[in-house]
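Lecture notes, part 5. Sequence design as translation. It can be helpful to think of inverse folding as translation between two languages: the language of shapes and the language of residues. The source text, in structure tokens, appears below.
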């Protein structure tokens, strides 16, 4: 039986930790593709869909250089074999981190900064919608992506050593974008 390898405090979004914002790097796409191949080998047919999500999936977007990946499955289960494979590959994991009935695998760098987040969610879940609609909206409306990118850079300058303050300051903007993205989706992915 595997065990959860991390203390939740390590991943708590309200804990001050090191972070930085990078300009967009086209290498993020190839990093995603390499990780995707690995995840396909680990999850096999259980992975219905594997998607690059988050800021590194938006062309031109400044981001923490952290590759976020969404793995969609028919159901959340123990994934014992998969957990063992991920641990062997250097990942740690936790359950219900981003939402109930989710699984997170992550890798950290030498300074403790997160380098990869693998979000395992059920197909049709609210988290799937959030990840994919937000990504597709920002890809479709580069002006919104630029606005978000500029905001992240500005907030990083304001809060370079205070990740919780950075997250809190960008939350109202993200809520507005989420609302716009959902309205866009509900209108058949046309206009805003």
């Amino acid at each position: 039986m595997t065990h959860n390898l991390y203390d939740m405090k390590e991943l708590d979004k309200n804990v001050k930790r090191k972070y930085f914002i990078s300009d967009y790097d086209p290498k993020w796409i190839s990093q995603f593709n390499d990780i995707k191949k690995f995840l396909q080998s680990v999850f096999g047919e259980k992975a219905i869909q594997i998607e690059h999500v988050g800021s590194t999936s938006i062309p031109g977007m400044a981001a923490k250089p952290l590759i976020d990946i969404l793995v969609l499955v028919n159901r959340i289960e123990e994934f014992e074999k998969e957990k063992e494979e991920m641990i062997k590959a250097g990942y740690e994991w936790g359950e219900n981190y981003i939402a109930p009935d989710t699984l997170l695998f992550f890798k950290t760098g030498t300074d403790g900064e997160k380098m990869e987040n693998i979000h395992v969610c059920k197909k049709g879940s609210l988290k799937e919608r959030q990840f994919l609609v937000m990504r597709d909206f920002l890809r479709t409306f580069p002006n919104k992506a630029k606005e978000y990118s500029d905001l992240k850079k500005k907030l990083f300058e304001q809060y370079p050593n205070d990740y919780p303050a950075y997250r809190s300051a960008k939350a109202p903007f993200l809520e507005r974008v989420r609302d716009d993205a959902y309205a866009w989706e509900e209108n058949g992915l046309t206009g805003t």
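The translated text above is only one of many valid answers, since several sequences can fold into similar shapes. The beta strands are 49-53, 67-73, 92-95, 103-108, 114-122.
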